[in-house]
Amino acid sequence: MLKRFNPFNRLADLFFKNRPYEEKTIQLSNEEYFVRAIKFDDIKDLLSIEREVYAGEMPWTKTAFLMELQATDPHLYLLIQKEEKTIGFIGCRLFGKDAHITNVAVSTAYQGKGIGSFLIKEIQQFSILNKCETISLEVRISNKNAQKVYRKLGFASSTIKPEYYTENKEDALEMVLSLKEE
Asked: Per residue of the chain (182 residues), what is the pLDDT tens digit?
């Protein structure tokens, strides 16, 4: 009972939910990358990656990114760069005890190098700090490669969402990663 009302616990909760991401340089497969929080000026690069990865389609608009970045709900949006060029990004928003990955994309030239997995692990750390119990996401039914990566990271299939993707009415597979210690 005392733990629940401890003022330090309340301060810690506020700190983690509003803590800025500390930018850093990382090594993946003997390559150096730079990771930081997304800024408004980055949206043009994000849209360019979307266009490349999704064959000309753009699931998120500039307005959608702006709204997410300005949201007051706890969230984390990261990009990764190679030699100052944005090559990938990820976003998540907390809904209660769930961290929902809203989008993730890695430039085709950099896929298969562990970048997407690294970004998901960063979201996992953010989720744990914020006392989430699950991480969820949707993936196209046809995107078997992404599903394989998510399963390798511990995600399990949950439900199918019919006609989730509006542009072609493709179904989505919802996948969930449990963060509860067993």
From this structure: 344 444 444 444 444 455 578 999 999 989 999 999 999 999 999 999 999 988 766 678 888 888 888 888 889 999 999 999 999 999 999 999 999 999 999 999 999 999 999 999 999 999 999 999 999 999 999 999 899 999 999 999 999 999 888 777 889 999 999 998 65
The number of domains in the chain is 1
For 95, residues 6+ apart whose C-beta sits below 8 A from its C-beta are: 73
Catalytic sites, residue numbers: 138, 150
Residue 158: inside a domain? no
| Predicted model pTM | 0.85
With tokens 């408004």, the residue in question is 40
- Single-letter amino acid code for the residue at 66: L
